[in-house]
Design brief:
By secondary structure, this protein is α/β, with parallel strands linked by helices. The chain is about 40% helix and about 15% strand. It contains 5 helices and 5 strands.
Length: about 150
C-alpha cells in the first residue's frame, strides 16, 4: 500500500508465463497491498503505460518490472521510450531478467533503469528477490507523485 493508502500499481512486462506466475505469487505472499498487471511483450507495456487500447482505463503504474528479451519490442526499446517521454520517465523501472551479461547491465543503466536484478534459477531464490524488491521499492523508497 502506498503512503496515500492506495494499492501500489505495478506493471510486470514478462513474456515467460512461468516467471510471471512466480512473480505474481511472490507479491501475493508479500505484505504490501498491490495490483500487479502483467503484459507479455514490450509493445503491450508501452500501450499500458500510455493508457492506449485495451489499457485505456488502467491506472498508470507506480513501478515497472521489465524483462529485457521480449517479443515485438524488447526491454531496451521500452526503456528508451519511457526515458523519452516526460510523463513516463519518473516511473521507476526495474529490469528483472535472466541475463547476467555485463553489457546488458551497462546498457540498461545507460537507458536510465533504476535497478537491474537477475532472476535466480531456483524457486526460493526467485521468491527472495521479489520479496527484497517489494520491501525496498514499496516500503523504503519514496515514489514520485502521479
Amino acid at each position: 500500500m502506498s503512503e496515500t493508502g492506495q494499492p501500489v500499481e505495478i506493471l510486470l512486462a514478462e513474456d515467460n508465463p512461468g516467471d510471471a506466475k512466480l512473480t505474481q505469487k511472490a507479491f501475493e505472499e508479500g505484505n504490501i497491498l498491490n495490483n500487479l498487471h502483467v503484459v507479455e511483450d514490450g509493445a503491450e507495456a508501452m500501450d499500458f503505460l500510455n493508457q492506449r487500447g485495451e489499457y485505456a482505463e488502467k491506472t498508470r503504474p507506480d513501478l515497472v518490472l521489465l524483462d529485457l528479451n521480449m517479443p515485438k519490442k524488447d526491454g531496451w526499446d521500452v526503456l528508451e521510450e519511457i526515458n523519452d517521454d516526460p510523463e513516463l520517465r519518473r516511473i521507476p523501472v526495474i529490469v528483472l531478467t535472466s541475463s547476467e551479461a555485463e553489457s546488458d547491465i551497462v546498457k540498461s543503466y545507460d537507458l536510465q533503469a533504476n535497478a537491474y536484478l537477475s532472476k535466480p534459477v531456483d524457486y526460493s531464490g526467485f521468491m527472495d528477490v521479489v520479496r527484497s524488491l517489494e520491501e525496498f521499492w514499496l516500503s523504503v523508497v519514496k515514489m514520485p507523485p502521479k
